[in-house]
Amino acid sequence: MLAKISALLNNAKKVGYGVPALGAVDEMTCRATIDAAEEMHSPLILLCMQNGNRDMEYFGRLMSDLALRAKVPVATMYDHTSTFESAIEGIRCGFNTVMMDRSQLSFEENAAQIKEFVRIAHSVGVEVEAELGHVGWGSNYAVDGSSALTVSEEAVRFVAETKVDCLAVAIGTAHGIYKAKPQIHFDLLEQLAHDVPVPLVLHGGSGTGDENLAQACKKGICKINIVNDLYRGAYNAAVKDGMEGNRIYDLFSVLSQGYGEVARHFITVFGSAGKA
Length: 276
Fold this sequence. Notes:
11 helices, single chain, alpha/beta, 8-stranded parallel beta barrel
C-alpha cells in the first residue's frame, strides 16, 4: 500500500527502529526490494536519485503503482534534487516525498529555499525531506567526515522555519565507499533526537557498518538510505554464480536475488522486520 513517509517515520521514532530507504532505478530493483519487505513484514521507502531513470515520468508512475500493490506500507522518494526545477519534477512524476538538498548553502539560504518548496509540496499532498549539516563523500572522508556536522540548535530552528517532514543530519557518515573508517558521533545524534521534533534521517548508510547502523536506529535515526551496497550485492551475486554458458539467461534473476539479499539484511539490521 502506498503510505505517507511521515506515518512510517513517526511510528519508527515512537518505537525505536529505522525504516529502510532502498535505492530503486527500474522495475527489477523495485520488485526486489518490495519482495524483501513483504517477506519480512517491513515498511519500506523506495528511493530514486534525481535522474536515476532516463524516463522519470514513466518510472515515477511505475514505482507508485508497485507501491500501491504492495502488501506492506511503501513510500516513494525522489532523492537529492539539486535544483528547484528538479524538485518540482519529483512532484510532477508522482513521488509522494521529495528530498530537496540545499545543505551546501548557508543556513539562511538553505532554510529559505526549503521553506518555499515545502509550501508548494504540502499544497498538493507531497512531503519533504531536507538536509542540515552536510553529508559528504567517502572518497574525501578525511575532510568531509567531520567538517559540517549538524548543530542541534540550528536544526530546531530549521524545522520550525521550514516545516519539513523529516530531516537528514550529518553525524559522521558519508556517501559512497569510505576511504577511512567512519566515526559516528552518537552523542550528537542523541542530542538531535532529543531536541528535533521531526524524524531524523541518515544518508550514507552503505559501508558504515552494521553495528553503527543498528545503534543509530536505537538512538534516534528513523530512516537510513542504502544504495551502494544494494548495487554491490547484485554484482557480487552475478560474479559468484559465474554466469557460464547458458546460465547467462538467468542473469537478471540472479541480480535480483543479490539485490534482495542485501535488502533483507538491512531490514534486519535496522530493526524494521515485523513492523509493517
